[in-house]
């Protein structure tokens, strides 16, 4: 693990330079007293080209049930800050060997209001990919390397809303997952900052499926 990531491919150069300076809208700026957490945005070169690692949480959880997410969680007292926490969580949740990850940068903290966490996104380059699988079957249902090409494909992008008409924001349909909420918002920023985004129809609006709403109501 290194902060300089000498093996980082050129397609990540713009992201590395601009991601730490990513502007944070006022509604997601961390609030005083929020609990510290971290997530790992892990970039790799997979069989289908550049990709990013996502997990899907188990439907049996009381919080964030069934939701796609970046590996991550609270920063424990024994963690040496957000980088250590993000790497530990990726190992525990998905089997990502930290020794094969080069840390690229940390992004500005973001506030996750419904769980009152201030989240530090940590970006990494998967220099030596390890075999991945759900580390905690009771917590993680799925681990997937999602190609950036699929994420930016306009056919896979939409805006989601509550059936009442309240919009939740951007979403992605990839690898049998509906990625929405905090993760989709962060992914949207990541794709834009990295220069990979493509024009898409934000006017394509769909209601969140009932099963998704039922799981989200546990939060």
What tags apply to this protein structure?
219 residues, alpha+beta, 8-stranded mixed beta sheet, 4-stranded mixed beta sheet, 12 strands, 21% helix, globular, disordered N terminus
Annotate the secondary structure layout.
Blueprint: H1 13-18, E1 35-46, E2 49-57, E3 68-69, E4 72-74, H2 81-94, E5 101-106, E6 110-112, E7 117-126, E8 140-147, H3 148-152, E9 157-161, E10 167-174, E11 177-179, H4 181-193, E12 205-207, H5 210-216
- Sequence stretches where pLDDT stays below 50 over 5 or more residues: 1-5
Arithmetic mean of pLDDT: 90
Number of helices: 5
What fraction of the residues are assigned to beta strands by DSSP?
25-35%
Rg calculated over all Cα atoms = 16 Å
For the terminal residues, how far apart are their CA atoms?
A: 34 Å
Basic shape: globular
Q: Helicity range of the residues?
A: 10-25%
Structural class by helix and strand composition: alpha+beta
Order of helices and strands: HEEEEHEEEEHEEEHEH
- Count of extended strands: 12
The largest pleated sheet is described as: 8 strands, mixed
